């Protein structure tokens, strides 16, 4: 059987092939030629000087690109005329050389297991679980909370393993944040050919950074292909979950859309609720007095007209950054209230459409789509963490934590400065006073500052004092009259699992156990809460690169192995306090050595009220991949029977 990534045979005319090649990523094209011919000379003939994040052409000159396309045209026409035979598998040493060439630097041995899985050149889906014995699997019904990207993934993997499951989803369809966030301009910040399941790639993305409707369709299509919808209870919320140690089950209370409640039992629970899930609306005096439409960006009121209206956009983080340029053409006046200036990363491709030639190459050229995935993954795989880590020997100057971080600050500052065209007042508002990458860095193609410079748009950095019936009053006493208020004020990110009540062994309330310092062993399991698994749990939010879909795939493989142990006769499992404390200690030690913990950053959704960070991952992608590749069973307590007073049935495997 032909590898799913070897390309669909084609009879495209030579003229049309030549036209398609004008549109493609030339480095990716040359890597495809190595597969077609088995010859690595293309790597030698077209050396690259370096790779820049989202710069899919590397630093090849236009002359070299044209020459490469001409060489490729001859090879591809010959390949077509030979009937598009499936390329022979490449030697692992050749694949490693191709990685190094694409990365423009040696790909360390520590990254090879992860990158090989991501490439998946043989199309085997290496993270797919093995099917369990049906009789054993039937004894382990699983309840999944949420059908966003991680919950849908969990459902797919559970079905592949043969485990019975039910998904509980509060929305009417799959996609989580991509179902809910329908505000104008909503789009993903991770290149889409990587921001998708490794085993469910799409060659049909219309944008390199897809907009919300297309992402919503993608997750709906995946759910349909895998037959997941019939196992989801839509428009239903989990109110609480309580562990029954005697029965070895979780008893989960559900609330349907009509308010009716019910209780179901499951041997295991997988939380897939996310961290950017529950909107946060600040408590501003007078907000209830406002007489116009007022709503959070994650619950956009499409019945509220903004065209020709005066709009207040409170908050200018990731959501506000997208909303303002999207509505500026329509509104009569836009006032943006921003508490903290944001660093912006130059990304000229942020709004670009994927050309027909690129889609043709994705569909037909052998392994083009997989190498393109690698090309957008690698520059974002831990490069950001290198710039975010504190160099203890660096003398702090100009709000930086290392020489690399200072270089990033200079680059970002230059990007902002060149766009304001000498407007010193605007520049003073736009330049952050904290180190680069210290908060979420926003993708920018110039649309943000271009919007702020428009005559009918104001950027207000003065704090808000109160809201009146017809406007917003700032601390300087000025009232800004508005007709509509949009709260782009983020989410309750540090309140993990809020508002659910999760009760573990001996009546322990997880929210009380955590307080403002949530933790989990490897971000997945918690002592005292048996058979309870977290995706996107504490300490796994990615602030430096990769994608949450990648993390979810790694976590679900790990969870799948745990569930297989339950199917093998284990009554319950949970991590030992000792192993959890050690993971927590190492994580906190690493987090404190990052720019995100810098004391100059007063406001960040990473931080709790104590200024501590417990939700963000401090680990390089390969480090976390290795940590969750398979469970270390010595770090778990596995019980073969209910624990009763005086019994000693706990055992380590």
Automatic annotation (TrEMBL):
Keywords: FAD, Flavoprotein, Oxidoreductase. The keyword Ligase does not apply. It comes from the Bacteria. GO terms for molecular function: oxidoreductase activity. It is an enzyme of class 1 (oxidoreductase). Its EC number is 1.14.13.-. Pfam families: FMO-like. The keyword Translocase does not apply. InterPro entries: FAD-bind_Monooxygenase_sf, FAD/NAD-bd_sf, Flavin_mOase-like. Belongs to the FAD-binding monooxygenase family. This is NAD(P)/FAD-dependent oxidoreductase. It comes from Mycolicibacterium arseniciresistens. The lineage of its organism: Bacteria, Bacillati, Actinomycetota, Actinomycetes, Mycobacteriales.
């Amino acid at each position: 059987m032909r590898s799913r990534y070897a390309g669909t045979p084609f009879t495209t005319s030579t003229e049309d092939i030549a036209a398609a090649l004008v549109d493609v990523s030339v480095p990716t094209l040359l890597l495809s030629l190595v597969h077609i011919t088995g010859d690595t000379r293309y790597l030698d003939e077209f050396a690259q000087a370096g790779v820049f994040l989202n710069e899919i052409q590397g630093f090849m000159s236009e002359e070299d690109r044209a020459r490469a396309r001409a060489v490729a045209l001859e090879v591809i026409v010959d390949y077509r005329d030979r009937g598009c035979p499936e390329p022979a598998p490449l030697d692992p040493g050749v694949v490693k050389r191709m990685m190094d060439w694409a990365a423009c630097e040696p790909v360390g041995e520590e990254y090879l297991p992860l990158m090989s899985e991501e490439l998946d050149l043989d199309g085997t889906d290496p993270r797919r679980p093995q099917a369990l014995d049906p009789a054993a699997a039937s004894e382990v019904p699983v309840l999944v909370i949420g059908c966003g990207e991680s919950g849908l993934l969990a459902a797919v993997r559970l079905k592949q393993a043969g485990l019975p499951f039910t998904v509980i989803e509060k929305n009417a369809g799959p996609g989580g944040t991509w179902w809910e966030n329908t505000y104008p301009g909503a789009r993903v910040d991770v290149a889409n050919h990587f921001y998708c399941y490794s085993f469910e790639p799409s060659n049909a993305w219309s944008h390199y950074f897809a907009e919300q409707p297309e992402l919503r369709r993608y997750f709906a299509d995946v759910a349909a292909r895998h037959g997941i919808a019939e196992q989801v209870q839509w428009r239903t919320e989990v109110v609480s979950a309580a562990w029954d140690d005697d029965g070895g089950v979780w008893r989960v209370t559900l609330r349907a859309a009509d308010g009716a409640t019910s209780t179901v039992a499951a041997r295991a629970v997988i939380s897939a609720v996310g961290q950017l899930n529950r909107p946060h609306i600040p408590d501003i005096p007078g907000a209830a007095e406002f007489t116009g439409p007022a709503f959070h960006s994650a619950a956009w009121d499409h019945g509220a007209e903004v065209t020709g209206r005066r709009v207040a956009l409170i908050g200018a983080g990731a959501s506000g950054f997208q909303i303002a340029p999207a509505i500026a053409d329509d509104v009569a006046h836009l006032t943006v209230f921003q508490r903290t200036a944001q660093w912006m990363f130059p990304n000229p491709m942020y709004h670009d459409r994927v050309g027909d030639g690129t889609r043709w190459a994705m569909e037909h050229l052998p392994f083009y789509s997989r190498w393109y995935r690698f090309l957008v993954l690698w520059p974002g795989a831990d490069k950001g963490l290198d710039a975010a880590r504190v160099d203890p020997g660096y003398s702090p100057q100009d709000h930086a934590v290392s020489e690399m971080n200072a270089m990033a600050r200079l680059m970002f500052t230059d990007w902002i400065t060149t766009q304001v065209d000498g407007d010193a007042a605007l520049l003073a508002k736009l330049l952050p006073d904290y180190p680069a990458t210290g908060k979420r860095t926003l993708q920018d193609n110039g649309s943000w500052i271009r919007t702020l410079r428009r005559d009918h748009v104001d950027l207000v950095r003065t704090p808000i004092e109160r809201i009146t019936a017809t406007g917003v009053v700032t601390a300087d006493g000025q009232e800004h009259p508005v007709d509509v208020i949009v709260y782009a004020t983020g989410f309750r990110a540090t309140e993990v699992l809020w508002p659910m009540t999760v009760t573990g062994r001996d009546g322990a309330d997880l929210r009380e156990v955590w307080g403002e310092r949530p933790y989990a062993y490897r971000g997945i399991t918690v002592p005292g809460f048996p058979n309870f698994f977290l995706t996107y749990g504490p300490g796994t939010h990615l602030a430096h690169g990769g994608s949450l879909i990648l993390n979810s795939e790694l976590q679900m493989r790990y969870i799948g192995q745990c569930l297989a142990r339950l199917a093998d006769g284990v009554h319950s499992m949970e991590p030992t306090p000792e192993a959890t404390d050690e993971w927590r200690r190492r994580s906190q030690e690493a987090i404190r050595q990052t720019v995100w913990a810098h004391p100059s950053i007063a406001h960040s959704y990473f931080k709790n009220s104590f200024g501590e960070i417990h939700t963000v991952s401090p680990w390089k992608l390969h480090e976390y991949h290795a940590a969750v590749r398979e469970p270390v069973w010595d770090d778990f307590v596995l019980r073969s029977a209910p624990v009763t007073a005086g019994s000693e049935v706990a055992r380590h495997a």
